[in-house]
């Protein structure tokens, strides 16, 4: 069999999973390339875990197909998929040592590269920064250390694909941030294709090569963190990923790529190559960091409601004709504040 180097490691087409009363995954399609760190992100209940369980073979799809390196794996059991999995709870065996836990991953497959079991376990523990921990009892480890053991166990047989379901959700924020950097470094060192699930949009932006933003079982947008952040494809994505200000109004005219939108209290000009025409309803967004306090083609006159000091910035909550807006500032402000922005600082999300 000839293999095409550019063939995706994962390819989902029209993947759907229905339970009696719920459609957990709804016509989902995407591909994951060799060595990619791909994240499924979305709010609770949007279908992330079900998608991962389908990929791992722990559930069967109602419709659609999953191919791994071009092979249709419908009906193929988890152990025959060449996949390493880490679920939300670490699920380490408490009656086994750390070394035995990692070695458990080798019960069904030989260690790669002709290594002995002991050598492989030692290598993996070193890889996750726990060298010499073989004899430890997993109950005597911190949450972060347990999570590393779980990752080492999943990696032990040298899988072709790694699936991670919120592996850091039980850890505190600071440790999570540190471990996500370590995880990304490890993933790059091993060059292992990874599908990662999180409900934390900031984590998704920080860690992914590409991400799928899920809502009600469907992917609303698949793209690089930069593309998803700068050019959200739907109102849901615009509001879910990062702080944002979303406006809706009627297109009153256009001059090339400069589109005028009547927002009610004021008309703004937004630069976009989209095909908006007079009379269309446009949804546009402006990130809080895009506002300045003077200059600018567009100006919204707002009232400061509250200010949150975040250390590196202050987040202002402002009222603009009953709509709450967010802006960033380096000085505490109060009273009436103009928020100015240039046409190219705004993004048109959708036009109908
Ligand atoms: P969370 O972040 O809370 O884990 P999620 O995005 O991973 O959420 P899923 O666990 O995939 O979401 O669930 C998607 C939907 O499918 C939910 O409405 C859930 O209640 C439903 N669901 C999941 N598993 C089952 C099941 N075995 N039987 C019935 N409904 C299910």
TrEMBL record:
It catalyses: tungstate(in) + ATP + H2O = tungstate(out) + ADP + phosphate + H(+). GO terms for cellular component: ATP-binding cassette (ABC) transporter complex. GO terms for molecular function: ABC-type tungstate transporter activity; ATP binding; ATP hydrolysis activity. PROSITE patterns: ABC_TRANSPORTER_1, ABC_TRANSPORTER_2. Keywords: ATP-binding, Molybdenum, Nucleotide-binding, Transport. It is a peripheral membrane protein. Its EC number is 7.3.2.6. InterPro entries: AAA+_ATPase (IPR003593), ABC_SmlMolc_Importer (IPR050093), ABC_transporter-like_ATP-bd (IPR003439), ABC_transporter-like_CS (IPR017871), Mo/tungstate-bd_C_term_dom (IPR008995), NA-bd_OB-fold (IPR012340), P-loop_NTPase (IPR027417), Transp-assoc_OB_typ2 (IPR013611). Residues 10-241 form the ABC transporter domain. It is found in: Cell membrane. Its main location: membrane. The complex is composed of two ATP-binding proteins (WtpC), two transmembrane proteins (WtpB) and a solute-binding protein (WtpA). Belongs to the ABC transporter superfamily. Sulfate/tungstate importer (TC 3.A.1.6) family. This is Molybdate/tungstate import ATP-binding protein WtpC. It comes from Halovenus aranensis.
């Amino acid at each position: 069999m000839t293999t095409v180097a550019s063939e995706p490691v994962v390819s989902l087409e029209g993947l759907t999973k229905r339970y009696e009363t719920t459609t957990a995954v709804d016509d989902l399609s995407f591909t994951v390339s060799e060595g990619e760190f791909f994240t499924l992100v979305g709010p609770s209940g949007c279908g992330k875990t079900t998608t991962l369980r389908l990929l791992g073979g722990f559930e069967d799809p109602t419709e659609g197909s999953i191919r791994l390196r071009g092979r249709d794996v419908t009906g193929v059991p988890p152990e025959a998929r060449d996949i390493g999995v880490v679920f939300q709870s670490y699920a380490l065996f408490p009656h086994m040592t750390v070394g035995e836990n990692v070695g458990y991953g080798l019960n069904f497959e030989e260690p790669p590269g002709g290594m002995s079991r002991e050598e492989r376990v030692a290598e993996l523990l070193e890889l996750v920064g726990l060298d010499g921990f073989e004899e430890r009892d997993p109950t005597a480890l911190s949450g972060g250390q347990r999570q590393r053991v779980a990752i080492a166990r999943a990696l032990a047989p040298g899988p072709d694909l790694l699936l991670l379901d919120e592996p850091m959700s039980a850890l505190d924020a600071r440790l999570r941030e540190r471990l996500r950097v370590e995880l990304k470094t490890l993933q790059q060192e091993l060059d292992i294709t990874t599908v990662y699930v999180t409900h934390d949009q900031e984590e998704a932006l920080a860690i992914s090569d590409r991400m799928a933003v899920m809502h009600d079982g469907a992917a609303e947008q698949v793209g690089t963190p930069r593309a998803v952040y700068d050019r959200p494809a739907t109102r849901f994505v615009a509001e879910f990923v990062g702080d944002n200000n979303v406006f809706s109004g009627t297109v009153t005219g256009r001059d090339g790529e400069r589109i005028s939108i009547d927002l009610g209290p004021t008309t703004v000009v937004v630069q976009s190559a989209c095909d908006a025409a007079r009379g269309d309803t446009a949804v546009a967004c402006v990130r809080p960091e895009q506002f300045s306090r003077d200059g600018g083609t567009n100006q919204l006159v707002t009232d400061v409601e509250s200010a949150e000091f975040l250390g590196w910035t202050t987040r202002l909550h402002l009222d603009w004709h009953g709509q709450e807006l967010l802006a960033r500032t380096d000085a505490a402000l109060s009273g009436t504040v103009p928020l100015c922005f240039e046409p190219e600082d705004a993004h048109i999300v959708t036009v109908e």
